[in-house]
Each structure stands twice: as C-alpha cells, then as structure tokens.
Prior knowledge:
By secondary structure, the protein is mostly helical. It is built from 14 helices and no strands. Residues 329-346 have low confidence and may be disordered.
Amino acid sequence: MKTDNEGRAGLLYGIGAYGMWGLVPLFWPLLKPSGAIEILAHRMVWSLAVVGIALLALRRWNWIGELLRSPRKLGMITLAAAVITVNWGLYIWAVNSGQVVEASLGYFINPLVTIAMGVLLLKERLRPAQWAAVGVGFAAVLVLAVGYGRPPWISLTLAFSFATYGLVKKKVNIGGLESLAAETAIQFLPALAYLLWLSGTGTSTFTGQGAGHAALLAATGVVTAVPLVCFGAAAIRVPLSTLGLLQYLAPVFQFGLGVLYFHEAMPPERWAGFSLVWLALTILTWDAIRTARRSRAAVEVAGKAAAAQAVVAAAAGAEAVAHEAVVPGAVVPGTQAAMAADTDGR
C-alpha cells in the first residue's frame, strides 16, 4: 500500500513539475516592459535566494565543502551555469517575442539531440529504432527550415543547450536543489552587477513599474525552484521510464499555448515538420518501452533459472547425504570423529 501511495505521489509530482514548465510561457509576458536580459538577471538573483532558504531549512550544506575541494566538479558546474544561462535567456526572449511554438519545438527534439550527442561524444551504440528516430528528426528539421525560410535556430539552440546541460549534470552528479544553488551562486554576481548597472542608469524596471511588477520579478525565483523541487520528489518515487514519458507534457503544453492562446501561425509545412518530430518521438518511446519490457523479462527468466539451479543443487546435496548414510562402509560427512570414539570405547 505504501509503495502504491508513493508511486501515485511521484506521478503527481512529475505531472506538477512538467505541467508548470509547460505553462511557464504564460508567466514571462507578465514581466513586460522588462527586457529578456533583465528578467534573466532577476531569475538568477531570486533563484539563489529561494534555493538558499530551502537549503537552510533542510540543513543541507555538507556538499559545499566537497564541491569547493573538487576543481573538476566546480569547472563542470560553471559550464552548466553558462549553458543554462543561454537556455533561460533565449527561452524568455522567444516567448516574449511571440515564438512560443518554435521554442516548444526545442524541447520536443531535445531527446533526439541527447541521443545524437551520446553517439558523437560518448560513443554510445544505437538500436535500429533509435537510428530511425534520429533520421526522421533530422528530416523534420529540414522540413521546418524550408517552412520557416531559415533553420529553426531557436529550437536547435534550446535543444542543444539543454542537452549539454543534462550531460554536464550527469557528470557532476549533484542533487537537483544543490546543483541549482551552485549554478545560481556562479550566476549571482554578474546578474547582480547588471541589475545595479540598470538601476544606476535609470533603465531598471524593478522600482519604476510599481510594487506588483517588483513582486512578479522577485517571483521568478519561485517559478524556477518549485518545479525543480517537484521534479526531485518525482525522480525518487517513479521509474525513469515514467519520467521519460512525462517530459513530453511540457512541450505539448507549450505548443498548445502557442497555437491556441497566443495564436501563432501554423502553415502546412510547419504542421508537416512537427508531425515528423512527433513520429520520431513515437518511434523512440515505443522502442524504449519495448526494450524496458524485454529487460524485465530477461531479469525474471534469469531469476527463475537461478532459483531452479539452487533447488536442483539442494536436492542433489540431500540425495548425496542420504546415499552416504545407507551404503555399507560409507562415512557420512561429520561422523568420522564419532566412529573413532566408539571404536576406542570397544
């Protein structure tokens, strides 16, 4: 019962995390007339404040000393902070400039880019279905490039930056909350310096647009941290395969908002490109589910075979002991000392 409850809670946390990430395009336009870079700087500063409060409440500080003593990990965290800065800033700019659909495409193709990077950088070997998915995804990018009249650079930059971020985070292997704290700590000083410069030149919107606008800018920290906390809660409660399927919720919501709420244009060639992307993801998901089922079946078969071998071995051992006990002149293991004592007594 407890396991079932944990699983349901994890599923709800996962839906909450990806749902919030999917609905975040509704939030960034509320911060106008702030520009994308100013919003990004506030996001960095206030995220550190929110995460710092969370770590203080949880008393999770031991990781800081370990990180500071590891130049390699510190360098990787700095790289992660740099690529997520590009990802955050471009996404905010794309949403506030009316390109939500192209931004959503970036997160649709992110799994395909991650697979491609695994082949190129980690020398991973792909299954035939994965090769097919990557090929269809490449065709989709070509179709969309024709439709847009240019390469979908926003989508590609978002996909590659987030895939790089995921790769670096995998190498660092630090918890989500701790990692965000370290990354925003690196981002903090440049972001704060930029905000102070805006204030000094009289171009800051933080104090010039009223208390409500200032509160919304401060809320960027909450908007960043809360989905991550929910994701962390989901990751320890549900299988990775489930999280892999849930990740599509975010771009689906973003795409729906772009088309239905922001009324962005979707000419036929763009529909064709997105259809190819969805076909590639369908192939990828089908292959992942099939592989997971085969792996579980193989584990079960191996477990049953090991159990059967143990039973046969136990039966053979018992038969051997019984045989030794009834054959004349045979000595059952462990009875030699008793026989010697009996002989001496006679």
